[in-house]
Structures are given as structure tokens and as C-alpha cells.
């Protein structure tokens, strides 16, 4: 029975993945039908970047501890027999442990963890920019439906939370675990841990590997000869 449930969930994830691509195709049609010729190439390119990073996100491994040679293992997971550390978490859906596992995302059919977090971040970011640009444009804003506004609002709130986690160097799994372990008396606002200098350093390391010369590769990722897929 358990295997049948897992199979059903896997097929559901395939449907969700297809729906993401379908939504991007719908946006492309709307851009060509509603957007002024001047802004059309820009919005199209932003949307293509979102599709590109989403595709890489689906293909790329979330990353196990063994993918990071500089990290020290502190045992083996009894469920999947993979190396684990204080920052690895087991996913019951994937049946594997991943380093800095954030959450299992049904929209990509796998977990978001250290290995694919950059692509996840850029996919959400470019999708927000694409939708927001259409909402702002006067020629299009009057034709935008409730769903686009709702989705954009939800993604912006979610993206703020993602950046907050980057800022405090925590995954959502670690953040939830820490909040559950703290009593009401010992409670401290999570914003007390925010260090903007650390945030800039971590964001730079994640997006451009700490090298400003790599910044141009974000809007032109197809120029990378061999994109690294772990």
C-alpha cells in the first residue's frame, strides 16, 4: 500500500511540474498579446530565464554530504545509510538525507537543499520579476487577473522569508526545529540574529561564488559551457 501511495504522489508531482511549464507558456502568450512591442523582448527574456533555472532545478541533485569533501561526517543515517552531519536532514519522500535540506517541494519532485538552492532562489526571483513587471505596466495591469496578483503576492512573501533564512544561515527545517525547541520564556525574535553584512557575503557566495566577475552569468547562464549538475 505504501508503494502505491508513493507512486501516486510521484505522478501528482509530474502533473505539478507540467503545470509550472504550462503557466510559463501562458505567460508567454499573454506577453505577445498584451505587452507593448518595446517591453516584449525584455519580459520574454526574463520569463525564459525563469524557465531555464526551473529546468536546471528539476535536473540538479539536492546534494548529499558526500558531495562536499570539506565537510566532516558525524555518523550514518539509519534510514538511508548515507553520511550525515549536524546539518543533514532525512526526507521520507525522497528516502535520502540531504545537506542543508530546506524542504521537499512537490513542484520540482524533489527536495530543495544545498546542491540546488541557488537555482531555486533564481527561479523564484525571475518569476517574481516577470509577473511583477506585467502588473506594473499600465498597458497590461488592467488585464491582469486575480490569480496573477495573488501568486505574485504569495511569491514575494515567500521570497522575503527565503532571504531571511539566507541572512541567518538557516534552512526552513532548522528554523522550525529551533522554534519548536525554544520555550515561550526563552523566546527571542528571529530578527535578532540578522546580520546584513553576513547576508551579503552569503548571498554573494551562493549566487556568484564570491567572485563579482561571475555576476554577468546570472542573466546569461546559457553562456556557461558546462553548467554543473551534481
UniProtKB/TrEMBL annotation:
Main location class: membrane
Location(s) in or outside the cell: Membrane
GO molecular-function term, one example from the UniProt record: protein-cysteine S-palmitoyltransferase activity
Membrane disposition: Multi-pass membrane protein
Enzyme Commission identifier(s): 2.3.1.225
Catalysed transformations (reactions): L-cysteinyl-[protein] + hexadecanoyl-CoA = S-hexadecanoyl-L-cysteinyl-[protein] + CoA
Any single Pfam family the record assigns to this protein: DHHC
BP GO annotations: protein targeting to membrane
Keyword set, alphabetical order: Acyltransferase, Lipoprotein, Membrane, Palmitate, Transferase, Transmembrane, Transmembrane helix
Domain of life of the organism encoding this protein: Eukaryota
Domain Palmitoyltransferase DHHC: 74-137
Gene Ontology terms: cellular component: endoplasmic reticulum; Golgi apparatus; membrane
InterPro entries documented for this protein: Palmitoyltrfase_DHHC, PFA4/ZDH16/20/ERF2-like
Residue intervals passing through the bilayer: 12-32, 38-56, 120-140, 146-168
UniProt feature coiled coil, ranges: none
Top enzyme category: transferase
Keyword Nucleotide-binding: no
Free-text note on domains in this protein's UniProt record: The DHHC domain is required for palmitoyltransferase activity.
Protein family membership: Belongs to the DHHC palmitoyltransferase family. PFA5 subfamily.
Protein name: Palmitoyltransferase
Amino acid at each position: 500500500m505504501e508503494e502505491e501511495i508513493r507512486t501516486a504522489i510521484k505522478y501528482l508531482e509530474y502533473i505539478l511540474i507540467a503545470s509550472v511549464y504550462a503557466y510559463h507558456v501562458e505567460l508567454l502568450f499573454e506577453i505577445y498579446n498584451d505587452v507593448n512591442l518595446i517591453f516584449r523582448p525584455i519580459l520574454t527574456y526574463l520569463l525564459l530565464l525563469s524557465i531555464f533555472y526551473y529546468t536546471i532545478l528539476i535536473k540538479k541533485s539536492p546534494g548529499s554530504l558526500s558531495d562536499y569533501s570539506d565537510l566532516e561526517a558525524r555518523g550514518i543515517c539509519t534510514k538511508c545509510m548515507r553520511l550525515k552531519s549536524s546539518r543533514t536532514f532525512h526526507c521520507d519522500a525522497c528516502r535520502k538525507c540531504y545537506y542543508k535540506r530546506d524542504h521537499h517541494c512537490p513542484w520540482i519532485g524533489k527536495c530543495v537543499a544545498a546542491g540546488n538552492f541557488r537555482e531555486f532562489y533564481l527561479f523564484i526571483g525571475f518569476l517574481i520579476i516577470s509577473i511583477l513587471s506585467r502588473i506594473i505596466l499600465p498597458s497590461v495591469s488592467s488585464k491582469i487577473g486575480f490569480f496573477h496578483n495573488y501568486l505574485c503576492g504569495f511569491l514575494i512573501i515567500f521570497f522575503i522569508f527565503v532571504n531571511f533564512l539566507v541572512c541567518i544561515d538557516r534552512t526552513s527545517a532548522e528554523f522550525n526545529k529551533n522554534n519548536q525547541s525554544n520555550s515561550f520564556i526563552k523566546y527571542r525574535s528571529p530578527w535578532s540574529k540578522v546580520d546584513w553584512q553576513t547576508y551579503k557575503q552569503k548571498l554573494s557566495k551562493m549566487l556568484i561564488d564570491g567572485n563579482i566577475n561571475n555576476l554577468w552569468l546570472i542573466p546569461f547562464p546559457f553562456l556557461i559551457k558546462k553548467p554543473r549538475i551534481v
